[in-house]
Amino acid sequence: MQVENAFDYIVNKLGIKSPATGIIYQNDEYGQDGLTGYKEAMSNYSLHDVGQATYAPTDTDFTAQVSQMKAAGAKFVFLTTLPSVTAKIIGTGHALGYDPQWILQSPAFSPLLLRVHSLVPLLSKASWVVTQGATWGDTSQPGMKQMLDDVSKYALDQKPDSFFEFGYTESKITYALLKKAIDNTDLTREGLLNAFESLKNVDLGGLLPPVTYGSSPNDRVPTRDSVVYAIDPSQPTSIRSLSGDFMGDAAKKSQF
Predict the structure, then answer these.
(1) Burial class of residue 74 in the structure, from the number of CB atoms within 10 Å of its CB (0-12 exposed, 13-18 middle, 19+ buried)
(2) Which of the residues 22, 124, 197, 215 could staple to 74 if both were Cys, CB 3.0 to 4.6 A apart?
(3) For 135-185, what is each residue's pLDDT tens digit?
């Protein structure tokens, strides 16, 4: 969903038709998920794919992958990577005189990267991260106001953190699931599964869009929405929304 929505943003929101694109992805299940999204985006948005490069989780040098993207002329490079690899890829690119628009799947970014001073201008000027959720501090969303009130009451040392926000949001889903099972007077494993498969329109207060679950894999995707963020160290969680919350055409159609 994140990969597909990223390219929907480029093609449909920014109006860049047939952009020259590439992807660097980790050679495991996580990376394959990013590659699947990339291939679906290629067919949906008529991307001009100029390169697909992979790396092993144990690799420490990414010169070959970056050089491949540079030689092919990729203007937008999606990274299905981990933060430590992201840092090395972007740093290698800059050292080679190559600074495309890097697009990070959410696990590819961590605010801890901004502690590396040389990375800050590179991430701020040429990197986006695609993720989900309301912007920390946006109290126009009732769920955000409740979360901040709860932090003030129960966790005064909690700093702005998108991973905390995501876990807090997930807890609302867990609560709804358990409440439904209790209302059904069936807390067995089967009862919990039945409750999950009949969980409809759980209101998350704008922290994420309402979620509905069912029995098929397609019914178990919690959200097909994404937000494209610029990396901005001045913001509470180091990201600033560019797109707002949206769902692109490819994400709507994607099958699981």
Answers:
(1) buried
(2) 22
(3) 999 999 999 999 999 999 999 999 999 989 999 999 999 999 999 999 999
Strands 127-131 and 101-105: parallel
CA distance 108 to 86: 6
User: What does the angle CA 159 – CA 163 – CA 168 come to, to the nearest 5 degrees?
Assistant: 90
Place of tokens 């990201």: 239
Closest-CA residue to 3 (of 16, 22, 29): 22
At residue 208, φ and ψ (nearest 5 deg) are -140, 165
**Residue 227 dihedral angles phi and psi, to the nearest 5°:** -130, 130
Instruction: Give the list of residues 6+ apart from residue 235 with CB closer than 8 angstroms, or none.
Output: 135, 136
Question: Which architecture characterizes domain 2-132+223-253 according to CATH?
Answer: 3-Layer(aba) Sandwich (3.40)
Beta-carbon contacts of 171 under 8 Å, excluding residues fewer than 6 positions away, are none
Return the domain boundaries, the chain: 2-132+223-253, 142-220
- pTM of the full structure: 0.91
- Interatomic CA distance for residues 112 and 163, integer angstroms: 12
Do residues 256 and 152 lie in contact, with contact meaning Cβ atoms separated by under 8 Å? no
